[in-house]
Design a protein that fits this description.
Strand content: 15-25%
Number of helices: 24
Helix content: 25-40%
Number of strands: 30
Strand order of the largest sheet: 3-4-5-6-8-11
Radius of gyration: 27 Å
Structural class: alpha/beta
């Protein structure tokens, strides 16, 4: 075995449980779409897409798109159909898979793949690229002195924490601008899987433990992106809630939990934003790969929800791990096609060979192939590439940086603020800036959710730029340390291969006398605690979810030194997902959850710290006292523990606050929680009727009773009768964010409830049913901080929606009940 083979084998072992989606750097020369000649018929001019000098049926824009596409399909050979149904590969992928055959390099280096071109029809190749925090393409290109940097936006957890649909749509527009101007047709985003467990390595890309927040957030982002004339691929459909063995893990989930939690978010997004594409996930649900599941991809997605776009696999979805590809294994391409998975990504020659044989022999019917081909052509016809859009390679980077700065600030959650530790606006008094992450700031997570941005604004840079007076000795000690730690971490990560997971950076150690000296001269201490995670692996409890010993020691020493001198200590959390806070939060005066706030993060934190922005973010997931307090903790990542093959969602619908609040488990910070620099009073709750009749409006007045302007997130929870089946104590069913209210100003918020908001899925009846009886409406500032309540009744049981049974169980288990 030669050196290259050895290193490939090592890489394959390292990447054992990883999947993909990393836009690896590619190298082909860059070219723009060329203008096509035209044909004039009857005084009207048409594009001659295939340059054959005559007007073909599919070029005749007087006809419906439907007729034009049908004319193409009628003329397509089986081989052409197969070439359209399977992606064009992904250059560089061989490092994970071993040799898989030709990969076509698309026009945009670093993109994740695309669809094939067909010159005789004038059908161009289209391009898809990652990802959820902004466009992921290669920043540099061979034989090209220009750079192609994209904007790194705040991660999913940060965006969702804004609870601001208008702002999220603006972020989507900015993302869409970059996608379009860099020549990409579809952004492989947003990602909206439920935060079932805090250790999922990809939670930073996702939005919430609650399907309403996830669905509404994703819909706003999709609407923003697609308003720019490019598409999205919402992912990963469905129940993709861990990274461990994600290509093969079999998730056992009840139909009720699937429909109420893991599908409901996708349903909201599909119905409210019509994404161009949906990406099927890697995992199995009840023994069937999601990309093989007709129940999911046809019955639920198309028949029940009315989805009209294409379904594509996640990269190598349906393959039982990367080793299987190396040894000639293959996904069940016929099953995938029959299920309604139109496009297999990234696509390899072996899949084409098997699919062509199946189509030629009749094992795959022409009817199914034609339907899938038609949907892909409908997608192609919508793309900027098909329209021969002349992209500029010059997006609105300055404006987009401003958008990300504002969105990051609005997504920050003020967890603690004793005696008004924040805002700290004094630019004359000295500030001590501790924590390696203050200097080596974390923009976002790793893997396909990362972005090749030009520059990240660290907290150091943000505070300097805002005019704060920083302790120079600390800065001079920390900067070289942070650079060294970050460089060493990168080397370690690269050793693990392309899906190497990020490690925590080591902290600096000082003695008590040093801290005492800083407390003498500085007015306040800012301490950043950082966490990173990525695609391809899950987080761990020790020194990740929980603080490391060196971090606890640092916090203890700083708090003791500064508090002795009557000075304040504020912790900045530069993290992508939940960490433990209960054991140390009493040691500090303030905690600002900054998330991983994108490339302008340091400016955004400075905006909040200084009071230029009043924090208005709220938690979209529960922060538990201990990891073990989570209902899913005993069923994550699955069994057997050393190499999980199965995971049982035994907690059923009791995920996140639905569990904590129903079972009376006290959290460190509850779902929906977030403080402000001002105060709000709620009053005058009203329902427009005391009985529910098709819809119900709830109004409540919110008044800023404090001294500075601010925004409040108003959350509406429903408590249902729960006679027929068990119900969570309360469930979020509507929310809104006020405008920026000046001191003394009020706003009346109107929240609407529809029949499905009252309904639960009753498996025995295969229907969404709202029970008859009395319902309680609770409106407040978090899931536990309820300010106003009202009641209404449902006179008789409502059968809101009858559906077919889906995803039959492959093993017996009972969902958790209170």
């Amino acid at each position: 075995m030669n050196k290259n083979e050895t290193s490939l084998l090592l890489l394959s072992k390292k990447a054992k449980f990883a999947g993909l989606f990393l836009a690896l750097l590619a190298v082909s020369p860059f070219a723009k779409a060329q203008n096509n000649p035209s044909v004039t018929v009857g005084g009207k001019t048409f594009k001659d897409l295939n340059k054959n000098g005559k007007l073909d049926v599919w070029e005749d824009t007087r006809l419906s798109v439907d007729k034009r596409i049908d004319a193409i399909i009628k003329q397509m050979t089986n081989e052409e159909k197969v070439n359209l149904l399977i992606g064009t590969g992904m250059p560089g992928i061989e490092v994970l898979t071993g040799p898989v055959g030709d990969s076509k390099q698309g026009l945009v280096p670093g993109a994740a793949g695309g669809t094939d071109s067909f010159h005789r029809f004038g059908i161009p190749a289209t391009i898809v690229a990652d990802g959820p925090a902004g466009l992921r393409i290669a920043p540099t290109r061979e034989n090209d002195s220009k750079t192609y940097y994209a904007t790194a936006f705040p991660v999913g957890t940060a965006l969702a924490s804004t609870w601001n649909k208008t702002l999220l749509e603006q972020v989507g527009k900015a993302m869409g601008n970059e996608v379009k101007e860099y020549g990409v047709d579809v952004l492989l985003a947003p990602a909206l899987n439920i935060n079932r467990n805090p250790l999922n390595g990809r939670n930073f890309e996702y939005y919430s433990e609650d399907p309403l927040v996830s669905g509404k957030t994703a819909a706003a982002v999709v609407n923003g992106i697609q308003s720019q004339g490019v598409g999205t691929s919402i992912k990963h459909f469905a129940a993709n809630n861990e990274e461990t063995n994600r290509l093969t893990i079999n998730a056992h989930v009840s139909e009720r939990a699937m429909r109420e939690l893991y599908l409901r978010n996708f349903e909201i997004t599909v119905k409210e934003s019509q994404p161009w594409t949906v990406m099927s996930s890697y995992n199995k649900v009840n023994g069937v790969y999601t990309s093989d599941s007709k129940d999911l991809l046809t019955q639920v997605l198309r028949n029940e929800w009315g989805f009209k776009g294409i379904v594509m696999t996640d990269w190598f979805g349906g393959f039982p791990g990367f080793e299987s590809i190396r040894s000639g294994g293959i996904s069940d391409v016929v099953k995938q096609m029959n299920a309604g998975n139109d496009l297999l990504m990234p696509g390899i020659p072996a899949q084409k060979k098997v699919l062509l044989e199946a189509l030629n022999s009749g094992k795959l019917s022409q009817e199914v192939a034609n339907l899938n081909v038609k949907r892909i052509l409908e997608y192609v016809f919508k793309t900027p590439t098909f329209a021969q859009y002349k992209y500029s390679n010059n997006p609105n980077s300055t404006q987009n940086a401003e958008t990300t700065r504002n969105a990051a600030a609005e997504g920050m959650v003020l967890l603690k603020n004793e005696q008004n530790a924040l805002p700290f606006a004094n630019k004359q008094k000295e500030v001590s800036l501790f924590g390696v992450t203050s200097y080596a700031w974390i923009t976002g997570g790793t893997g396909s959710g990362s972005v090749n941005n030009k520059h990240t604004v660290s907290l150091l840079e943000g505070l300097n730029s805002a005019g704060y007076k920083l302790d120079k000795e600390l800065v001079d000690l920390y900067k070289p340390h942070a650079e060294k730690e970050a460089a060493a971490e990168l080397v370690e990560r690269k050793k693990k291969g392309i899906l190497g997971l990020p490690g925590r950076l080591g902290e600096m150690k000082f003695d008590d006398a040093f801290y005492a000296k800083k407390a003498e001269t500085s007015e306040i201490a800012f301490v950043t605690l950082g966490r990173n995670s990525g695609e391809g692996g899950d987080r761990v409890v020790n020194e990740d979810f929980n603080l490391a010993t060196e971090e606890i020691e640092m916090l203890d020493k700083i708090s003791k030194a500064f508090h002795t001198k009557g000075k304040k200590v504020v912790v900045i959390l530069n993290i992508g997902g939940v960490i433990e806070t209960a054991s140390w939060k009493d040691k500090v005066d303030g905690i600002l959850l900054a998330w991983q706030p994108g490339q302008e993060g340091g400016h955004s934190v400075a905006d909040v710290i200084s009071g230029k922005v009043n924090p208005s973010g709220k938690l979209t997931m529960t922060f538990p006292v201990n990891y073990a307090d989570h209902a899913s903790a005993k069923n994550f990542p699955g069994i057997p523990a050393d190499n999980p093959k199965d995971v049982t969602y035994q907690e059923g619908v009791y995920v996140g606050y639905r569990y904590f609040n129903t079972f009376g488990v006290k959290p460190s910070y509850e779902f929906g929680y977030g403080k402000s620099y001002t105060d709000f009073a709620y009053s005058n709750i009203k329902t427009n009727s005391t009985t529910f009749n098709n819809k119900l409006e709830v109004t409540v007045d919110v008044k800023n009773t404090g001294k500075v302007a601010g925004k409040e997130v108003v959350e509406l929870y429903i408590s249902a009768p729960g006679k027929n089946i068990d119900k969570p104590k309360s469930e979020l069913k509507a929310y809104a964010k006020t405008k920026d209210l000046k001191p003394g100003e009020s706003q009346t918020i109107t929240l609407t409830l529809n029949p499905k908001d009252l309904a639960s899925f009753e498996t025995a009846k295969s229907a969404w049913i709202a029970e008859a009886g009395s319902y309680k409406v609770s409106v407040g500032a978090s899931s536990l901080d309820i300010k106003q309540t009202a009641e209404f009744s449902v006179p008789k049981e409502l059968v809101v929606e009858k559906v077919q049974h889906i995803l039959p169980a492959d093993e017996k288990f009972e969902d958790l009940k209170p």
